[in-house]
Design brief:
It comes from Candidatus Nitrososphaera evergladensis SR1. GO terms for molecular function: 3-isopropylmalate dehydratase activity. It catalyses: (2R,3S)-3-isopropylmalate = (2S)-2-isopropylmalate. Keywords: Amino-acid biosynthesis, Branched-chain amino acid biosynthesis, Leucine biosynthesis, Lyase. With about 200 residues, this protein is α/β, with parallel strands linked by helices. It has a single domain (about 5-170), classed as Aconitase, domain 4 (Alpha-Beta Barrel). Helix content is about 35%, strand content about 15%. The strands form two sheets. Strands 1-6-7-8 form a four-stranded antiparallel β-sheet, with no helix packed on it. Strands 2-3-4-5 form a four-stranded parallel β-sheet. Helix 4 links the parallel strand 4 (about 95-100) and strand 5 (about 115-120).
């Protein structure tokens, strides 16, 4: 997983509340066996019509938002089913952070496991960011700040999750850091285990 330290980008504004995981990545695209490849299906039913043609009025189809790494959203982002694919699709599309007033718990947790930083800001602060979609935003994970224009906003994050993101560690990476201790334990355990 790539470490997350400081991210500077303009935001892609998704001005909708209660965006659920079925809208983030529809069920028919959950057949892939790896974490990659889901970005093309992000918000698929909103991005494309029944014939697969891009809808010109959807924000991700507007060329001015191409390459932006921050998704700006409204309340209760990531609600619905617990599919981890939603976080995979967001990361695979190119977003490293999602900023919203609130997140569904499972989606929030899945973001951390996959290298996406979910940033909770007060509704008024999110409103401020929505006012100008050309505003450069800086998210500093170590300082737990979001800077935009003349405003600096603070966000809360669990210390352990913060450490994992800063170091670029998922659950497997964290376990591999303890490889020598695990191997030592296994060698000692075999000494005391009864022979079969």
């Amino acid at each position: 997983m790539e470490p997350f330290t400081v991210l500077k980008s303009k935001a892609t504004p998704l001005d909708r509340v209660n965006v659920d995981t079925d809208q983030i990545v529809p069920k028919q695209f959950l057949k892939l066996v790896s974490r990659s490849g889901f970005g093309q299906y992000l918000f698929y039913d909103w991005r494309f019509d029944a014939e697969g043609r891009p809808r010109p009025d959807f924000v991700l189809n507007d060329p001015k938002y191409k390459g932006r790494q921050i998704l700006l959203a409204r309340d209760n982002f990531g609600s619905g089913s617990s599919r981890e694919h939603a976080a995979w699709a967001i990361l695979d599309y190119g977003f490293r952070a999602v900023v919203a007033p609130s997140f569904a718990d499972i989606f929030y947790n899945n973001c951390f496991k996959n290298g996406v930083l979910p940033v909770r800001l007060a509704a008024q602060e999110v409103d401020y960011l929505f006012q100008d979609d050309g505003l450069e935003i800086e998210i500093d994970l170590a300082k737990q700040t979001v800077r935009a224009g003349q405003k600096e906003m603070h966000f809360e994050i669990d210390d352990f999750r913060k450490k994992l993101l800063l170091e670029g560690l998922d659950s497997i990476g964290l376990t591999l850091k303890l490889d020598s201790e695990i191997s030592k334990y296994e060698r000692q355990r075999q000494t005391f285990a009864p022979s079969l």
